[in-house]
Amino acid sequence: MRHLSVFVLAIILIMLPSCKYFRAGGLFGKKARTMAILKAQEDSIRVADSLQIIKARLIATEKARLDSLRYADEVRKEMESKNKFNIIVGSFITPEYAKVYADRYRKQGYDPKIIRQEGSKFELVSVESYDSFRKAVSRLKQFQDTVQFESWLFINK
Predict the structure, then answer these.
(1) How many whole angstroms separate alpha carbon 121 and alpha carbon 58?
(2) Residue 46 lies in domain
(3) 3, 38, 67, 110: which has the fewest Cβ within 10 Å?
(4) Is residue 27 over pLDDT 70?
């Protein structure tokens, strides 16, 4: 009898942890649920941190791209200002007239620039610019013969 009671007690102890009641709602179930909740929270925090890192990298990349575009635009403007011989098709006091005139030549396929000078109230509409006086004069003659007779050469100092 004594062996039988030990045997029955051993079977009960072996079966108790595997019982659905103890796994799901008992002592072992609460601990497992708590651990699962903590693991899920850790995972969500890890994902949120990863997203923050990725967002910071994207912002840095976009800032670098905008900086490089700004730098390229500055270099382009500096190079354009080095072209000191400009073919001018119009000179205006009113800025709106200069813009309209520039748009007129843009529609014809040119890339007009509006030149504003310090100390002057006039805005010059330039359709082409050159770094060589010889090229500028020869192109000015062609331009006067084919496009606009009243165009002239402006030397930007």
Answers:
(1) 44
(2) 20-82
(3) 3
(4) no
Q: What is the pLDDT of residues 42-51, one digit of tens each?
A: 888 888 888 8
Domain check: are 47 and 91 in the same one? no
CA distance 30 to 5: 31
Q: Tell me the torsion sign for CA atoms 19, 20, 25, 31.
A: positive
Question: 102 and 48: one domain?
Answer: no
25-43 burial, b at 16+ Cβ within 10 Å, e below that, comes to eeeeeeeeeeeeeeeeeee
Locate all alpha helices (DSSP H) within 83-118, ordered by sequence. 95-107
**Residue 147: predicted pLDDT:** 85
Rounded CA-CA distance 32/23 in Å is 8
- Looking at the fold, whether 67 and 108 belong to one and the same domain comes out as no
Q: Other CB atoms closer than 10 Å to residue 80's CB: what's the count? A: 15
* Predicted pLDDT of residue 124: 93
- Residues 141 and 157 sit within 8 Å (Cβ to Cβ): no
Residue 13 lies in a domain: no
Q: In this structure, are residues 151 and 78 in contact, taking their beta carbons and an 8 Å threshold?
A: no
Q: Is 114 left (phi over 0), alpha (psi -120 to 50) or beta?
A: beta
